[in-house]
Amino acid sequence: MGVAALIYEARWLLTSVALAIWVALKIKQYYRLRHFKGPFGTGWFEIWHGLAYLSENSHLKFKEATDKYGPIARIGPNELMTSSIELLTHINGARNGYTRTRWWYLVGRFVPDRDTIFSELNEDIHNKRRAQMAGGYSGKENHELESSVDIHVAELVQLIRTKHCSTETKTKPFDLARKTQYLALDVISHIGFGEPFGDLVTDQDVGGYIEDVDKGTRASVYLLGFGLTELALGTPLMHLLGRSEKAKTGFGGMTANTRRIISKRLEDDPDMSKGTDMLASWFRHGLDKEQLITESIFQLIAGAETAATSMRSIMLYLLTHPRVYTRLQAEVDAAVKDGRAAPYPNIVSNATQRQLPYLWACCKEGMRMHPAVTNSSQKKVPPGGNTVMMEGKTVYLPGGTNIGYCVWGLNRDQKIFGADADYYRPERWLNEEDPKKLAQMNQVHEMLFGYGKYQCLGKPIALMEIGKTIFELMRNFDWSVTNVEEPWKETNTSGIFMTQDFLVEATERSVS
Question: pTM to 2 decimals?
Answer without folding.
Answer: 0.93
